[in-house]
Amino acid sequence: MKVDLVVIGGGPAGLAAAIEAKENGVDSILVLERDRELGGILQQCIHNGFGLHRFKEELTGPEYAERFINQLKEENIDYKLDTMVLDITEEKLVTAVNTTDGLMQIEAKAIVLAMGCLERTRGAINIPGTRASGVFTAGTAQRFVNMEGYMVGKDVVIVGSGDIGLVMARRMTLEGANVHAVVELMPYSGGLARNIVQCLNDFDIPLLLSHTVTEVRGKERVEEIVIQQVDEAMQLVPGTEKTIACDTLLLSVGLIPENELSKKANITLNPLTNGPDVNESMETSIPGIFACGNVVHVHDLVDWVTEESCRAGRSAARYVKDELTSGSGTLSTTPSSGVRYVVPQFIEPNNIDGNKLTLMFRTDAVYENVRIVLMNNGTRIKSVKKRHMVPAEMESVLLKAKDLEKITAGEISIAIEQEEAVLS
């Protein structure tokens, strides 16, 4: 089989990229999705809060996904469900399998990677104790409750205050469970402020910051857990142990971009994001292979996934039409003081779409009254005032034409500076 563009993943990133590529002149597109339906993780996110930026209205996850699924079908873009991609190569040969077509090999002119991310498990964070049943990742529990119709427990403790954990605290409460607490290792929440208010405060669910689970007890089923406070150095504080009787422990302890296929194609991965290094066009280190969404870096809002994926789709179309200059470009971005990472990592000025470029990043701590400062070869090119910044919320800086004119080849660094230091 030969197509112009293969999109791996039929979630919000893959759908947006495929539609955008179609609207930019690519007719031969195939979307490969391993689940039984399109929409990805949005299908199990039945709470609202999606689409506020994209559509200026509040949608549930399935409603947000439905708009793109309908558009995909109206555009007559081909897709295959229940299809697992086994391998991709640098030559853009895709090997996939399903029960209808069997083993397939697809030659593509371009590929968009939109595989999303995985949840960290109990094994990934080494929680001690017995291996009793009743320990779930929050996303797995969400799928059981919202899509499969199974209740996973009655007395629940949630570890990690990421958005999935916060949403599941509310969801389990609404389904009749007693959620005793959300336990967070860090001194700040890993979720959006609106979710802390709407999912915890509104339901009187305690958020225990600077705490961790030190033991799971139970023979067949979880019977109780032990939590303990940690100090600023993340060391356990003796004498703060507390036992909570429960039958279920939900883990919301981080997401990891799913890049096993990227590794097979020898795509360069970034140690800070665990996703591919990409340039301004969302092109990876392999020409013609693009990436977008949570496979690049974990997003907080699906609206940003869509925006980024549209850029990947437009770029893939330009590549197919031989209008794109591949490569790492003449500029690189570097996270500096207070910044964990920056996407994209490389920039080719000739490819910048619409003469404006958005740099996305996350901070490494909570900051108040600061400035985001961009430097290029020792010259300040932009400074943006911010009153409040937290690691849970993705930040961005838009570089317009007047900003881009100041940039020469070399490195763009992004740092967080205290406002007083800037004014002095």
From TrEMBL:
PANTHER family in UniProt: ANAEROBIC GLYCEROL-3-PHOSPHATE DEHYDROGENASE SUBUNIT B (PTHR42949:SF3)
Enzyme Commission designation: 1.5.3.1
Highest taxon of the lineage: Bacteria
FAD/NAD(P)-binding domain boundaries: 4-297
InterPro entries associated with the record: FAD/NAD-bd_sf, FAD/NAD-binding_dom, Metab_Enz_Cyan_OpOx_G3PDH
Pfam families the record matches: Pyr_redox_2
GO MF: sarcosine oxidase activity
Name of protein: Thioredoxin reductase
